[in-house]
Write a structure and sequence with these properties.
With 126 residues, the chain is α/β, with parallel strands linked by helices. It has one domain: 3-Layer(aba) Sandwich (Glutaredoxin), CATH 3.40.30. 14% of the residues lie in helices and 25% in strands. The strands form 2 sheets. A 5-stranded mixed beta sheet has the order 5-4-3-6-7, covered by helices on one side. Strands 1-2 form a two-stranded antiparallel ribbon. β6 and β7 form a beta hairpin.
Length: 126
Amino acid sequence: MSPTSFDPTRERRVPTRLGGERGALAEITATTLVAVVKPSCDGCHAFTHGDLGPLCDLPVLVVSAAEGDEWADAAREVLVAPEWVEASGVRGAPHYLLVDRSGLVLTEGVLFSPAQVAGEIAAHRR
């Protein structure tokens, strides 16, 4: 049995510009997967350090509300942006949002693995 998300998507828009604590910026300009991670999270490791496999053709932003020492050697940048996490309405990490370029949340759920997320967002990819 594979883990899946079960909460319905809450209809809302999220900010499309993300500002990090160290001056880093990111902008959502196309349908993007936002992976909201936290330090010391086994399910988050694939998104910070691992191979995204079935998600490799999709823009992915990795965001956290808190710093994590383990991100110094991460395969992709982790943008520490607590204000964005709060403004996006994410209630806790690990979580994912599939967001279109206007900031509309197309779908969301708990983040367990790239394969699980790819399966859950498949109907919303364009």
